[in-house]
Amino acid sequence: MLKQASPQNATGKLAVEIRRLVIEMSGSPNGVHIGGSVSIADLLAVLYGEVLRQPAGGGAPEGRDYLVLSKGQASAGLYAALAATGVIPEEECATYAEEGSRLAGHPMKTLPGVDFSTGSLGHGLALGLGVALAGRRFGHDNRAFVILGDGELAEGSNWEAMMAAAHHEVDNLIAIVDRNGWQISGRTEDIMSLEPLADKWAAFGWRVLRIDGHDHDQIREALDGPVEPDRPTVVLARTIKARNVPGLHDTKKSHSATLSADARRLALEALDGEV
């Protein structure tokens, strides 16, 4: 049973809780991809708080939604969302990346709420396409949401899935690009230029929405609004890597980090008063 959040600014509180849990997990000696996990916190809060049907997975396939975290290195953000909504015990977050833990560095499908093991970048969009096609074929009212990193768009398999989704007119597929501008080696535009990114998706036949990935109203409207018949949708969400985390905000070093107790304290203090 999912926890029932307070109706007053519930999604905002959920976003803060997700970031809090990510920051606490960042004490792991194995390191946490804190930047990419924090940049998708608001997207996850709207998805888990308002949009996804049967977010814990399981049960009958009819009328449920699927979420594929293609950028599997941001698993801490996903685990935080699952814990904050009661899908997994919150105390389990303390076991992140430990030997024998269910919370591996990349999400594993043995965990409740995880339908696909991911992290081999470039594969998630094809998985989401398969789910969306299967739902349509069997007459199920399914939606497939796929969270992609902008850096992983350098993988050619994404573009094959994009082309196939448009060709098959899969309008129950929604791709969400975490456009934080960074990948492991540096700025995306320095490593492999993506712009004009919106034009490229549109040229492949997709409906393109551009939003502020930290604005819950914009996220909600993009993800839960009406679709365009016979066209898949991509949401280009402009975000900030490690948003508001002292010393890591919009920096390369936030890609994988182990924060000291003092650094975690400062980061948690920065969350105070947000909601």
TrEMBL record:
Sample GO molecular function, one term: magnesium ion binding
SUPFAM superfamilies on file: Thiamin diphosphate-binding fold (THDP-binding)
Cofactors: thiamine diphosphate
Chloroplast found in the keyword field: no
Pfam family, one: Transketolase_N
Span of domain Transketolase N-terminal: 15-263
Keyword Ubl conjugation: no
Keywords, comma-separated and alphabetical: Thiamine pyrophosphate
InterPro entries: THDP-binding, Transketolase_N
Domain of life: Bacteria
Family: Belongs to the transketolase family.
Protein name: Transketolase subunit A
Originating species: Actinophytocola oryzae
Taxonomic path: Bacteria, Bacillati, Actinomycetota, Actinomycetes, Pseudonocardiales
